[in-house]
Specification:
Helices cover 45% and strands 16% of the residues. It is α/β, with parallel strands linked by helices. The protein has one domain: NAD(P)-binding Rossmann-like Domain (Rossmann fold, 3-Layer(aba) Sandwich).
Length: 276
């Protein structure tokens, strides 16, 4: 039996991850900014679930949540950094405060929780850290530059972390989902308030009022949760777990396009060293 701490469990993939772990008998610290939205999970699993309020942008709440989890269950085996939300805007449209908050939640919030659990994992020489990214980090659609940027930062940090903690018996992995049938494209999606007309045919097509995807995504959150559990349980967890056919297809297409460009400019790239 493993003990999990999962951020952002009120809806979507975070809730699906928590339900799957609880259903198989694991212990789970289920968290959300509004603890009442996850209390039903704790009520349904009184012996194995602990519901806590957690805003990952609040240092004190992160420290308190990890301390409470360790006191209640004795330690955290798996941290899942899932808390987050979408933000759509052309790069020029991006509002400074909104962009700062996006980075504060996705990137700095992730760092806060990792730093809080790592001392315990290092002491036990075991543990797994799972950080939620997005296929957006790879394909960077118009109108999602800022969201893609925070997810790309998550991936880079996780790759360095993986190399640092592997000798200590700790695994670190990234999950890159495609489109899943959650609230992500609905309640959890924000956007710039003032669109610029020149971007109507690029970023503008992805604004909420033009979005037709919500509620029709192919991804099944329950299947995503089963895949995550399998990856965490693996003797050698992957660095990157793609979830969904759209994620797999998009990832491969982005790699092929990048490889083509690298090949086209290889002579120039290799011509920049000293020749003596």
């Amino acid at each position: 039996m493993a003990t999990w701490l999962i951020t952002g469990c009120s809806t979507g993939l975070g809730r699906a991850f928590a339900e799957a772990a609880l259903d198989r008998g694991d212990e789970v610290v289920v968290t959300a900014r509004d603890v009442s939205t996850v209390q039903d999970l704790a009520d349904a699993h009184p012996d194995t679930a602990l519901a806590l309020a957690l805003d990952v942008t609040d240092d004190a709440q992160v420290t308190a949540a990890v301390h409470a989890a360790e006191e209640h269950f004795g330690g955290i085996d798996v941290l899942v950094n899932n808390a987050g939300y979408g933000y759509r805007a052309a790069v020029e449209e991006g509002e400074d405060d909104a962009v700062r908050q996006l980075f504060e939640t996705h990137v700095h919030g992730m760092v806060r929780t990792m730093k809080a659990v790592l001392p315990g994992m290092r002491a036990r020489r075991s543990g797994t850290i799972v950080n939620l990214s997005s296929i957006g980090a790879r394909i960077s659609p118009e109108g999602s530059g800022y969201y893609a940027a925070v997810k790309a930062a998550i991936e880079a940090l996780t790759l360095s972390l993986r190399k640092e903690v592997a000798p200590l018996g700790i695994a670190a992995m990234v999950v890159e989902p495609g489109g899943f049938r959650t609230d992500f494209a609905g309640r959890s999606l924000t956007q710039a308030a003032e669109p610029i007309a020149d971007y109507a045919e690029t970023a503008g097509k992805r604004r909420k009022e033009h979005d037709t995807v919500h509620g029709t995504q192919k991804g099944d959150p329950a299947k995503a949760a089963a895949a995550l559990l399998a990856a965490v349980d693996a003797d050698e967890p992957p660095f990157m777990l793609l979830l969904g056919n759209d994620a797999s297809d998009g990832f491969r297409a982005a790699l092929d396009a990048l490889r083509t460009e690298v090949d086209a400019w290889e002579t120039v790239s290799r011509g920049t060293d000293f020749t003596d």
